[in-house]
Design a protein that fits this description.
single chain, alpha+beta, binds flavin mononucleotide, NADH Oxidase
Length: about 190
């Protein structure tokens, strides 16, 4: 698929079938992700792939973390939280390393990991998969971070949900760059 076609037609798809996605396809997504630009070639991205019962365990941790963040959360809210990771057969958590050298800047590592995540989304689209980048309180929760095996100082910038679309999505309404762009030209 042409790269511009993938960029223009990719869209977030949250409703997917429970059908499994092969490991080979997931590896192709990860391989596309790590082709992203990254300053000083530090490769700051980290991926944790959750399938099967790992998603159920994540749901338990998410519900417990919600209970700790909000002791008033009722049974219904906790059940909703517990079920969230079951919305797709594959979840890929994307973490970011803190700079390990003085010359490396944290935001640049975050930028690189975000570029990797977009690569992953584009690859999913090109391979006929549906994907959705999600965050929310869970992505910032220390308990969930620990469950995923990240260090306290690493950031989690997203949980990418991957599966096969439940129905053929309509072509996305694409936004314009025009109101976000200024053209400057200086004559000497
Ligand atoms: C950093 C980041 C976090 C996001 N978190 C969520 C989220 O928690 N829940 C959600 O529904 N969508 C989330 N999204 C997806 C956006 O809602 C989506 O990209 C936006 O609506 C544009 O739609 P599109 O992806 O189909 O172009 C997130 C996107 C980014 C880049």
């Amino acid at each position: 698929m042409d790269v511009l076609e993938a960029i223009n037609l990719r869209q977030s798809i949250g409703k997917v079938k429970p059908d499994p996605v092969s490991r080979e396809l997931i590896e192709r997504l990860l391989s596309a992700a790590v082709q992203a630009p990254n300053h000083y070639k530090v490769r700051p991205w980290r991926f944790v792939v959750l399938t099967g019962s790992a998603r159920e365990r994540l749901g338990e941790v998410m519900a417990e973390s919600l209970r700790q963040r909000d002791p008033n959360a009722d049974g219904e809210a906790l059940a909703r939280e517990r079920a969230k990771p079951l919305r797709a057969p594959v979840l890929i958590a994307v973490g970011v390393d803190q700079p390990s050298l003085p010359k490396v800047i944290e935001i640049e590592n975050v930028c690189a990991a975000a570029a990797a995540t977009q690569n992953l989304l584009l690859a999913a689209h090109a391979l006929g998969l549906a994907a959705m980048w999600r965050t929310g309180d869970a992505a910032r929760d220390p308990g969930i971070k620990a469950f995923l095996g990240f260090e306290a100082d690493q950031r989690v910038i997203g949980l990418v949900y991957v599966g096969y679309a439940l129905s053929e999505p309509l072509p996305p309404a694409r936004p314009s760059y025009e109101d976000r762009t200024v053209w400057q030209q200086f004559s000497v």
